[in-house]
Amino acid sequence: MKAIQRTSIRLYANPQRVLARYLNVGNAVRIAPVADYVRELSVDAVAEQLESLNQEFGQRHADLTAVFRKNYERLLQYVPPLENADKQVLLGAYFTNEYSIEAAALFNPSIVAHPDQEGVPNGAIRFLMSLRATGEGHISSITFATGLIDAQGNILLDERSGHLDSGDVTTDLVREKSFVTKRLNLSEAFQRLLEETLPASFNYEEAKQIVGHQKELTLAQQQEIQEALALVFELNYEVAFEEHIPLLNRVLFPQSRAETNGIEDARFVTFTEEGKTSYLGTYTAYNGREIRPQLIETTDFRHFKIGPFYGEAASDKGMALFPEKIAGRYAMIGRQGGRSLSIMYSDDRCFWDHTLPLQAPQRGWEMLQIGNCGSPVKTEAGWLLLTHGVGPMRKYVLSCSLLDLEHPENVLASLDLPLLSPNTEEREGYVPNVLYTCGMMSHAGRLIIPYAMSDNAISFATVGMEDLIVELLKKN
Predict the structure, then answer these.
(1) SS (HEC) of the chain
(2) What pLDDT, in 10s, does the model give residues 66-121?
């Protein structure tokens, strides 16, 4: 489409952006000899090793000693404690490693208006992007970038620098009984038992003990129920960051068993309900064997609630929520079956049971599959939905459809030709011939589209909303 304009912005992966992570070797056989070695070291030898570590790695992390101490605590399930504090720190260091979150790629951005617009010049807007960062083992995490779009539409990115932090994770939260039982996948008899025996609120250990005291259950039945409860508490967790840690340095790294191999393709949207604003990010959790659609909720990008979608329709990749309710219900775009777009509605944004067909591939450049590229943007003419299409040679292009405002299951129009297709520069990268994004935003009558270029770099394109709507509707 001629009206779309590319920018010269290039945001590349930076392998120097590293997290200090727990090195999980998994068993006491590997850990015990190292613990014995540290236990026998002299005080001077321990001090010498710690000084060397601090000189080599201290400037790369905000508080490396604190990381070592935390990782030492994780080792106590395998080995007896050490009495000397410095020896504890050193043992923790042996089971710490640096993880370069962007070593392989940085791609698939989504974009929303920044929650803090204080001090922004008239006619400008501050934005926030989520980015999919991929490192060793192709494990993906979420990192962030920020910037400003001025009144003339110029895009300025903030410098990304400083020490990375993955926050403090809480899995064993106190939960309401209705929250837990609704998410369990147990027999009707077991569900009834828990409804009758569990208190109004509890943490996992409390629930585990109650189940263990049910004499009518066999040991195997107790274990089945306890494992189901453990899964609910593990998958539904929270992450919080200290206030002094800049947003640009916060990383959402995989935490639960559903996402051990990655948090993929987050699609954040500014969601408004009853006058309150929150930021909802749908993403794909991958554990190396299965994928699972999940949801991130935050109001400030400092405190995050994370958990799965549930229900028959909670399957496959590429879910994107609408920014507001439609006729009193939550609405979401999906791609059940892997090839065509669907739409679904629900009274509970965590539970989705029914889908409606929305759009199937029609043209050669999208014949393999189509999918959404983030949440729809509302206009007077309808909902603008950015899509991707895959054609011959697995070339990914961006396109757009227009959905009815009140009944978005009705597609009013879609582009006959791609909105954006990889050019000579954009086709080269980790995954060739792919343009992809997880969101767009509107500002001053234009759509701002950050996009990944073959997983090699991130750039921006802009297009006038009026021009795009005219193009969509000109054949009608």
Answers:
(1) CCCCEECCCCECCCCCCEEEEECCCCCHHHHHHHHHHHHHCCHHHHHHHHHHHHHHHHHHCCCHHHHHHHHHHHHCCCCCCCCCHHHHHHHHHHCEEEEECCCCEEEEEEEEECCCCCCCCCCCEEEEEEEEEECHHHCEEEEEEEEEECCCCCEEECCCCCCCECCEEECCCCEEHHHHHHHCCCCHHHHHHHHHHCCCEECHHHHHHHHHCCCCCCHHHHHHHHHHHHHHHHHCEEEECCCCCCHHHECECCCCHHHCCEEEEEEEEEEEECCEEEEEEEEEEECCCCEEEEEEEECCCCEEEEEECECCCCCCCCCEECCCCECCEEEEEECCCCCCEEEEEECCCCECCCCEEEECCCCHHHCCEEEECCCCEEECCEEEEEEEEECHHHCEEEEEEEECCCCCCCEEEECCCCCECCCCCCCCCCCCCEEECCCCEEECCEEEEEEEECCCEEEEEEEEHHHHHHHHHCCC
(2) 999 999 999 999 999 999 999 999 999 999 999 999 999 999 999 999 999 999 99
